[in-house]
Design brief:
Chain A has 300 residues and is α+β, with helices and mostly antiparallel strands. Chain A has helices at residues 34-43, 98-107, 147-150, 181-192, 249-258, and strands spanning 24-30, 47-52, 57-62, 65-70, 87-94, 126-128, 134-138, 151-153, 168-176, 195-196, 210-213, 220-225, 238-246, 275-277, 287-291. In chain A, the strands form two sheets. Chain A has an eight-stranded mixed sheet. Chain A has a seven-stranded mixed sheet with strand order 10-11-12-9-13-15-14. In chain B, 41% of the residues lie in helices and 16% in strands. Classes of the chains: A alpha+beta (300), B alpha/beta (290).
Chain lengths: 300, 290
């Protein structure tokens, strides 16, 4: 006699952080013009510290924040080659068990990313996110890092360059089509354990959309819908920009201005103690500063 | 309400996809419900069919049909997930925003409602990155789900933003579902409505329902359940349903008639339907899936 199938109700309730999610390991930009983007990243305080052994991929770091710039020209199955306009192409999440997180996501209806689509040769599992972007799961971030395998340190590079003005990851902003915030809230809640904050609770200088808190309360996703009555504007669903937290936004803004970063200085995004928004570089790259006291631990 | 809210279903017409698209447009309709067979059966291949649809100027009401999806396990479940992914990819390529999924008739499905809910949740999740809504429909000969109330129970429990109901007047009539059953449904979760009547009073067995559904449907206004269809239209209107209607009229005679003859009958049906609902001056609101 065959064993009856387990029902949903027989499953034990899941913990509120089912993946053991523990912050952002890195964000990835894809671009065919890596040097131009590197200049902007360096103005923002990120230092290039390592280069991939075999691909045109560079690791930038600042305090607890890692950025990978992927200029690998080869178009991989199911993916397009990086274009001239840099795109925020992946978020890597720290989790307790990457393989378990990946398979749990597939069981719940995620799409597996194309084989070897990752910027890394190390096998990092990942799923499709918004637009053409990917969400990686990384579990090697404590005892040794994923970069130890794939990357070679640049000569004279400081391994752990300190953060300017205590800057740290605050979150990622995503554009969504009209009336699609609910769909993406389901996506992040069910697959990753994010929780929508009550309406009206915002940070920074762009108080709109839907804010989702990560289960470890380390960072946020902000969903911004296409404004109604704006059918004529070019709008698609993608990762728009990263949010960077700083305990003293005005000090951070001042420091970055001195390094050449230009901030939007007109309403409604006038730089203030709550936040600031940089100009858009290359038609697609912008950074948002947000008042945040949380300073994540630097990488070991 | 106006003709903009009504579309034709390719199943209702004979001939190749080009001819169907042209006939529907020439018939004064602005939208079309597509079947996977229209796409994969095109002699010049799938991409040619997708290009034709994209260039037709017609809005795609939805794409059908994912069958026998819920309640499977093991290899069968994995197989159906693969099928669902292929259907979703086609749906997306066509610019369709809704995929129709019909309640299972499979002898291999388990009668586990929790499993049904989990499977619909999984399907809805697969559809999120592709900007597709899943419309779940109760087939009147479905093995476990054969009426609107049962389909709604699953959709409600699954509680996913991009999962809703497809309502088919034929199945409601065949299953003997009163229109008041819609009172228990959130009208915002009705993703589209398919319309058809038939020529005899009742279809007491599942086999009769299936046979009638596949060969003997007629347009609303042509069959014997006009009063019930009129009541259904008024109920949906009262509930505030502002989405699309599509004529899904499987009929062996219609697929051997000139396409213009069939679309003319569809136009007559639209006029008949418009006479059944009170005229209101409310502006037409576009459904989010448009």
């Amino acid at each position: 006699m065959s064993r009856p199938l387990p029902s949903v109700q027989e499953h034990n309730p899941e913990p509120s952080n089912p993946l053991g999610l523990d912050g952002i390991e890195f964000v990835e930009y894809a671009t065919s013009q890596p040097l131009a983007l590197a200049n902007v990243l360096q103005m923002m305080g990120f230092a290039p510290i390592a280069r991939h052994r075999s691909r045109e991929v560079t690791l930038f770091r600042q305090g607890p924040m890692n950025i990978i710039v992927n200029a690998h020209p080869e178009a991989l199955t199911g993916m397009t080659a990086p274009g001239a306009r840099p795109a925020l192409s992946a978020i890597a999440l720290r989790v307790r068990d990457a393989d378990a997180a990946f398979h749990r996501a597939l069981d719940l209806g995620a799409w597996a990313m194309p084989t070897r689509a990752s910027a890394m040769e190390l096998n990092i599992p990942g799923i499709h996110g918004v637009g053409g972007s990917l969400i990686y799961f990384v579990d090697r971030y404590k005892d040794f890092s994923i970069y130890d395998v794939d990357f070679v340190a640049l000569p004279d590079a400081v391994r752990a360059p300190p953060a300017l003005a205590g800057m740290h990851w605050f979150g990622v902003v995503q554009s969504v089509y009209a009336e699609r915030s609910g769909d993406w809230t389901d996506f992040y809640r069910e697959l990753l354990g994010f929780t929508p904050l009550p309406g009206g609770q915002y940070f920074g200088i762009l108080p709109k959309g839907t804010l989702l808190a990560s289960p470890d309360r380390n960072f946020y996703l902000q969903l911004i819908e296409q404004p109604s009555g704006s059918d004529d504007i070019d709008w698609d669903e993608r990762l728009l920009r990263v949010g960077i937290g700083a305990p003293d936004v005005e000090a951070a803004t001042r420091l970055l201005k001195e390094r050449g970063v230009v901030f939007v200085d007109r309403d409604p995004v006038q730089p203030s103690a709550k936040g600031a928004l940089t100009q858009v570089y290359f038609g697609s790259v912008t950074f948002e500063l947000v008042k945040s006291d949380v300073v994540a631990a630097p990488p070991e | 309400m106006n003709i903009e809210r009504f579309g034709m279903d390719t199943i209702t017409l004979a001939g190749p996809l080009e001819a169907k698209l042209r006939a529907v447009r020439d018939g004064g309709f602005t939208q079309i419900m597509l079947s996977a067979r229209d796409v994969v059966g095109h002699p010049d291949g799938e991409q040619a069919a997708i290009d034709l649809v994209r260039k037709s100027g017609l809005r795609v009401t939805g794409f059908q049909v994912l069958r026998d999806f819920e309640g499977l396990s093991g290899d069968l479940h994995a197989y159906k997930i693969d099928i669902a992914k292929s259907m979703l990819a086609m749906c997306s390529a066509l610019g369709a925003r809704v995929l129709l999924c019909c309640s299972t008739t499979s002898a291999h499905a388990t009668d586990d409602r929790d499993r049904f809910v989990a499977d619909l949740q999984k399907l809805a999740m697969l559809a999120v990155p592709l900007r597709i809504d899943i419309a779940f429909e109760a087939l009147s000969w479905g093995r476990f789900v054969s009426d609107v109330a049962s389909a709604w129970d699953l959709v409600d429990r699954a509680n996913r933003h991009n999962l809703g109901l497809a309502i088919d007047s034929y199945h409601m009539l065949a299953a003997g579902t009163p229109v008041d059953a819609l009172d228990d449904i959130d009208p915002r979760k009705v993703l589209f409505v398919q319309l058809a009547d038939f020529m005899w009073q009742s279809t007491p067995t599942p086999d009769e329902r299936r046979e009638t559904a596949r060969h003997f449907r007629v347009f609303p206004g042509e069959g014997v359940h006009g009063a019930q269809i009129a009541a259904l239209m008024r109920k949906l209107d009262e509930l505030g349903y502002d989405g699309d209607y599509s004529f899904e009229v499987f009929n062996d005679d219609y697929v051997q008639l000139p396409l213009a003859t069939v679309t003319a009958r569809a136009r007559q049906s639209v006029q008949w339907l418009l006479r059944q609902v009170p005229h209101r001056s409310l502006p037409f609101r576009r459904h989010r899936a448009a």
